[in-house]
Amino acid sequence: MKLAFSEIILPGVTALVGVVCLGFWLAAGPAKDIEPRISGRDGTVDESANAVRPEPGEPQLGDGKASQLEGEWPSFLGANGDSILVGGPALARSWPAEGPPVLWSIEVGDGYAGVAISDGKVYLMDYDKDKEADTLRCLSLDDGREIWRNSYPVVIAFHHGMTRTVPAIYDGHVITMGPRCHLASWDAETGEAKWFMDLEHDFGSRVPEWYTGQCPLVDQNRLIVAPCGREALLMAIDYKTGETIWKTPNPRGWHMTHVSVVPMDFQGKRTYVYCASGGVVGVSAEDGKVLWESTTWKEINATGPSPVVLPDGKIFLSRGYGSGALMLQLAEVNGQIEAQTLFELAPKQFSSEQQTPIFRDEHLYGIRKIGAKSMVCLDSAGNEIWDSGSDRFGLGPYMFVNDLLLILDDDSTLTLAEASPTGYKRLAQHTIFPDGHDAWGPLAIASGRLLVRDMTRLACVDLSAP
Q1: To which H or E segment does residue 17 belong?
Q2: 350-396: per-residue pLDDT in tens?
Q3: Which residue(s) pair with 325 in the sheet?
Q4: Who contacts 190 (Cβ-Cβ below 8 Å, separation ≥6)?
Q5: pLDDT category of residue 301 using cuts at 50, 70 and 90
Q6: 380: closest CA among 320, 312, 331?
């Protein structure tokens, strides 16, 4: 049989070239400009660095002074947990061409953590990348200067930001939840650590994807959190000492989500509602006993918005990632409380990926992620009353101040609008940071001063009327 030239010569030439190239590569030695991969730069963490329980340090004092301005925004979504402020100074209903005055602006660590405001001071749970430490910063409401800071060491990597939680201020205590489920209490005046616990190591909590988003809740003189670990699903803590008052068992092994615990009164009794990975649960404020649970609403990828409590035993739930919204109705059946599905909305009807909708005037307000990202108003039966038309928004926060609605877009564009069940009307609009991005941190306001942030900056904007 006769072989073609290409079948004899070509394979030999190819092999010879390969041998020569291999020889040059071996002779060249290792490359001089290749650096070893360092854990954390690509969203990974050397977990051995977090094997030792961290301890808070001593406060570091700055030159900032507390403002004499009054007004409080003491916790996540405000004093009533509903993103509504009633009273306080009137806001300007129009802005000059250059926008409302930005009184001060500072650099902050990567993230979406919002602030709490009390006694002329601004509290921010930040992350110090240089020192690799969760850091609580106390700032002056007047000028943003730091009054004090305190921290504890923990190694975390950038993973769509780092910080996501808002402190809770109560009776001289500042209570924080860090990205890796570290729960701490600090003296609001001095910054001294009062007590500290590690939910991951002490209670078996699993740090959620993209770090902790759960904000502390203080209710009826108790701190309420959802560790969702082997030790407890929910727990009540003495906010002064850090001692556990009661624990709710977690036999199903449900995990923590980005949702915060919400108080609810039902049949004359105080309860707490939480959306865990496997469903929604309601427990007694008295002893943590499970009063009802539902597996109808399980976590899909991530659950961010907290439950919204409506009158008459209704609970509105929403999220993004291809899911919509659900209204639960609590009802007593044969002596037991059941959570029944009242209605469900498809994503194109309503879905909120990050922010918690607002219930006001018997209506729900929120930004629908699917489609145009419009602000919409729904009645309590889930029917759409209006949308914001050509005004379209991103995943940023929103709040009501008396009859005015404030909305922050992804790029830090702030919109001022009139909004009620009768309609929506934009009054003013201005971009706070010219190159803003990922402006998703919850808003806070006191004495007409609005605190806004994007991924790396925090600013104080004066919205008060002249």
Answers
A1: helix 5-28
A2: 999 999 999 999 999 999 998 889 999 999 999 999 999 999 999 99
A3: 318, 345
A4: 59, 148
A5: confident
A6: 312
pLDDT surpasses 50 at 17: no
Whole-angstrom distance, CA of residue 170 vs CA of residue 123: 12
User: What are the Cα distances from residue 33, in Å, to 25, 30, 36?
Assistant: 16, 9, 10
Q: How far apart are CA 1 and CA 80, in angstroms?
A: 92
> DSSP characters for 209-244?
TTS--PPPEEETTEEEE---SSS-SSEEE-TTT--E
Contacts of 423 (CB under 8 A, 6+ apart): 386
pLDDT tens for residues 307-325?
999 999 999 999 988 889 9
Amino acid at 273: V
Strands 444-446 and 449-453: antiparallel
The contacts of residue 172 (CB under 8 Å, 6+ apart) are: 187, 188, 189
Q: What tokens appear for 392 in the block? A: 């379209």
Q: How many residues does the chain have?
A: 466
The answer to whether residues 198 and 207 touch, using CB atoms and an 8 Å cutoff, is no
Given a contact cutoff of 8 angstroms between Cβ atoms, the answer to whether 292 and 299 are in contact is no
DSSP-derived secondary structure for 102-141: EEEEEE--SB---EEEETTEEEEEEEETTTTEEEEEEEET
Burial pattern 311-332, b for ≥16 Cβ within 10 A else e, equals eebbbbbbbbeebbbbbbebee
3-state helix, strand, coil in the chain (%, to 5): 5, 40, 50
Q: Which residues 6+ apart lie within 8 Å of 246 measured at CB? A: 235, 236, 287, 288
**How far apart (Å, rounded) are the C-alpha atoms in residues 263 and 282?**
9
Pull the structure tokens for residue 249.
């068992």
Residues in CB range of 60: below 8 A, 6 or more apart: 148, 149, 150, 191
Determine if the pTM surpasses 0.85. Answer: yes
> What are the angstrom distances between the C-alpha of 98 and each of 94, 155, 413, 458?
11, 41, 13, 19
CA distance 318 to 296: 12
Looking only at the bridges linking them, the beta strands covering 84-85 and 398-401 are parallel
Which strands sit side by side in the sheet containing 444-446, from one edge to the other?
A: 102-107, 457-462, 449-453, 444-446
Residue with tokens 């769509």: 160
**In angstroms, rounded to a whole number, what is the distance separating the alpha carbons of residues 125 and 173?**
14
CB atoms within 10 A of CB 6: 8
Strands 235-237 and 182-187: unpaired
